[in-house]
Amino acid sequence: MKKVLIGVGIGCGALLILGLMAGIGLFLVGKKAVESSNLGTAAARFQKQEEALTHLQTTYAFTAPPDGQVLKLDAARLEAYLAVREGALPAYAAFAEKSHELEAKRDQGHRPGVTELLQAANAMSGLVADCREAYVSGLTKQKMSPAEFTTITQALYVSTLVTAMGTAQEEAARQGRAALEKQVAKLDQDLAGDSLTGAARTQAEQLRAGLQEQLDDLHEAQENGASPEQRATMAANLALMKPMEARIAKVANPAFDLFTANGAGAMPGSGSEEATEADSDDSDDDSTAEHKE
């Protein structure tokens, strides 16, 4: 089973802003506006967080099951995993709310000026950094690597969905596939137009590829079925999850799962493009330890 995760991605409004954060030079901005932004501060936070994630990956090395096999969940590590989610999701919810707000404006045909773009980029960069900070803090506290976190997430999804395919809950699995197909169709529609450019288009294309890979995995699992050993593992996982159902449901968030699976919102590129100074000032708002299985 591939390491990509089942879920619905963040909106393209967020992708557009993340693209702006990565390459602010794509827009004509005044020097004062750039100097007054906190994008540099966010970039520095991102760099420190990236170093922390790398450190966690090596310090708490984790060996995932071979491709095509599901991790057998451990009660203590599942408890630690849920604690990480509970600590990080409030920060992610703030990011998602702002993302949806920006996407709604875009869908309504709103065309922001340079100052508004900078304000949105400032807000989004800070929110993404806050979310990453909460995620890194949780992993550190629970002595967990990003690899272990995403593998446990995968085990939760697969144990639930693949088992459902062979039970009376098959309808739930069908709805999951339909949701993925709908998201792929929405991304295809966005990519067919010209609203996404540069880094934002690249991220949308990567997200679309990841979702398609998830669909392919689901279809393959349905066609080939799981081995008796794997079904036993998934049944044991479901039994372990049963007493925690309410807690697991409370922290369920497919978009957050894609966020963590794709580097926890790592800023695309390094901001190497140079900003171009506009003739107008910034008041011209109308300018355009190991845990191994």
Task: Describe this protein's structure.
Strands 1-2 form a two-stranded parallel ribbon. It has one domain (12-267). The radius of gyration is 20 Å and the shape is globular. The longest helix is centred in the first third of the chain and has 33 residues, at 75-107. The chain starts with 11 loop residues before the first helix and ends in a 16-residue tail after the last strand. The model is unreliable at 1-36 and 266-290 (pLDDT under 50). α6 (146-165) packs across α7. Helix content is 68%, strand content 1%. The chain has 293 residues and is mainly α.
Keywords, please?
about 290 residues, mainly alpha, two-stranded parallel ribbon, 11 helices, 2 strands, disordered N terminus
Q: How many domain regions? A: 1
**Beta-strand segment tally:** 2
Name the helicity range.
Answer: 55-70%
* Average pLDDT level: 74
How does the overall form come out from the CA principal axes? globular
Largest sheet: 2 strands, parallel
Poorly predicted segments: 1-36, 266-290
End-to-end distance, in Å?
16 Å
Structural class: mainly alpha
The helix/strand order is HEHHHHHHHHHHE
| Strand neighbour order, sheet with most strands | 1-2
Radius of gyration: 20 Å
Determine the number of helices (DSSP H or I, runs of at least 4 residues): 11
Query: What proportion of the residues form beta strands (DSSP E)?
Result: under 5%
